Amino acid sequence: MLDDKNFKVKVGLAEMLKGGVIMDVTNAEQARIAEDAGACAVMALERVPADIRAAGGVARMADPTIIEDIKKTVSIPVMAKCRIGHFAEAQVLEALEVDFIDESEVLTPADEHHHVDKHKFRIPFVCGCRDLGEALRRIGEGAALLRTKGEAGSGNIVEAVRHMRAVVGAIRRITVLDDEQLMTEAKNLGAPYELVCYLKKHGKLPVPNFAAGGIATPPDAALMMQLGAEAVFVGSGIFKSSDPAGRAKAIVLATTHYKDPKIVAEASKSLGEAMKGLDIRTISEDRLMQTR
Amino acid sequence: MNRTIGVLAIQGDFQAHLEVLGLMGVTGREIRNSGDLEGVTHLIVPGGESTTIQKIAQFDGLWDKLVDFQGPVMGTCMGSILMARTILSPDARGWGMINLAVQRNAYGRQINSFAARGKIAFLDHEFEMVFIRAPKIIKYGDDVKPLAWLGNEVTGVISGNKMALTFHPELSGSTLVHEYFLGL
């Protein structure tokens, strides 16, 4: 699978997004602001996660009109979300020729037991993960890119940090295992054996791993990059802040220059109010998106 | 000769280039600001989003230093766009390192991305070329020589010590193109 030519082309686009910021946008005007700020891609959706959380009800794939408007407006890649397991929404997104599909826990799951068989599609998929087992299962299903789930729409980085540390820590652990231990490790992780062997050999995932779910400030982005993220998704953090254009630019700059605190400091100046955010402990279990 | 290989690391698949250099036993330097460019002899400009790079590279005068870079440069995909004199759809100004006109996303969106075997002037066998939302070379000047082809289509050119490729040799698991570049 990993040597397959089509898979290589899918992972190729994920490689191109590294070091960049992918921003949630709900209309053509926001897409323009994101592109002007230096976003490397946009995620087209009807509502940002914070508003989905507030609105309740069933959250579904965006109206194709919104997606087409955004595609016409920007020259950077356009992503869109489908519900977990909703392969018909994914088929629609492929027919609309979006550049990447996010099978996302931000939308209400359509199937509580199965994800989309992503090998069947020519468009690459990104999926969220909280730990290595989840990451490897998604790759096994054909995901060409992973991201932490974090807790979308919370404006709180704590869950993304937890998930990134879990994945990176578990990879590190596998690199020091004996070959005899790999099958048991695969069993314990609930992950494909071949991918566990790949990790032992290469010390890294066969697809890029980005951060998402709670990034609201330039240092949030720099933190995730230093923890091992190769790019960041920003959802509600930009268009729920008081100065979206300024904040978008600042997060882009902090993501490129994550190793240089002086530049991150400069980028953080006078940005106005960040999104308000939520203490994760105040979100009841049934309203968490990451457990989907 | 003392070589220092810089890879523009503002955004894009710079890691893939660094890994290919690593296979050759060469440690590349990540270039994010103008200071990083100090002492660099060879510059690699990776794939990525040219609109993004155009914005971030203005930050501390890096853009102007890149335009003035005198040593060998290899641009892949987006890199070939930035090196060009003329950029189409949307129209923009490149560095003008090569007398070249390129059209962005000329094959279409990601669904039209592909990998296929093509020919490279300095190799006696075919080479796998990965095209990701790739540009096309529309026109090149008399001082520019074609270097790579997919069928009859020119997918790479060279002019002096500047080479521009519309595909991604860094994604093919081969060091051959990078070896050629380091010989420039």
List the helices and strands and how they pair.
The complex is a heterodimer of chains A (292) and B (184).
Chain A: H1 5-16, E1 21-25, H2 28-37, E2 41-44, H3 49-55, H4 64-73, E3 78-83, H5 87-95, E4 100-104, E5 125-129, H6 132-140, E6 145-148, H7 158-175, H8 182-189, H9 193-202, E7 209-210, H10 218-226, E8 232-234, H11 236-239, H12 244-256, H13 261-268
Parallel strand pairs in A: 1-2, 1-8, 2-3, 3-4, 4-5, 5-6, 6-7
Chain B: E1 5-8, H1 14-23, E2 29-31, E3 42-45, H2 50-56, H3 62-67, E4 73-76, H4 78-83, E5 84-88, E6 92-93, E7 98-103, E8 114-120, E9 127-131, E10 136-140, E11 145-150, E12 153-159, E13 162-165, H5 176-182
Parallel strand pairs in B: 1-2, 1-3, 3-4, 4-13, 5-7
Antiparallel strand pairs in B: 5-6, 7-10, 8-9, 8-11, 11-12, 12-13
Question: Which terms would index this structure?
Answer:
heterodimer, A: 292 residues, alpha/beta, 8 strands, B: 184 residues, nine-stranded mixed beta sheet, four-stranded mixed beta sheet, 13 strands, 20% helix, globular
Order of helices and strands of chain B: EHEEHHEHEEEEEEEEEH
Largest sheet of chain A: 8 strands, parallel
Mean pLDDT of chain A: 96
The N- to C-terminal Cα distance of chain A equals 27 Å
Uncertain segments of chain B of ≥5 residues (pLDDT<50)?
Answer: none
Describe this structure in words.
Chain A contains 13 helices and eight strands. Chain A has 292 residues and is of the alpha/beta class. Chain B is an alpha/beta fold and 184 residues long. A nine-stranded mixed beta sheet of chain B has the order 2-1-3-4-13-12-11-8-9. A four-stranded mixed beta sheet of chain B has the order 6-5-7-10. The radius of gyration of chain B is 15 Å and the shape is globular. The mean pLDDT of chain B is 96. At the A-B interface, α1, α2 and α12 of A face α1 and α2 of B.
